Amino acid sequence: MLNSRKKHIGHKHCITNYLIQQMALLSIRNLHASIGDKEILKGVNLEINCGEVHSIMGPNGNGKSTLAGIIAGNTKYTVTQGEVIYKGKNILDMPVDVRAAEGIFLGFQYPVEIPGVSITNFMRTAVNEQRKYRGLDPLTGAEFMRLMEEKKKVVEMTTNLANRSVNEGFSGGEKKKNEIFQMAMLQPTLAILDETDSGLDIDALRIVATGVNKLRRPDNATVVITHYQRLLDYIVPDFVHVLYEGRIVKTGPKELALELEEKGYEWIREELEAKK
Question: FRET label pair with 28: which of 18, 70, 144, 187, CA 20 to 30 Å apart?
Answer without folding.
Answer: 187
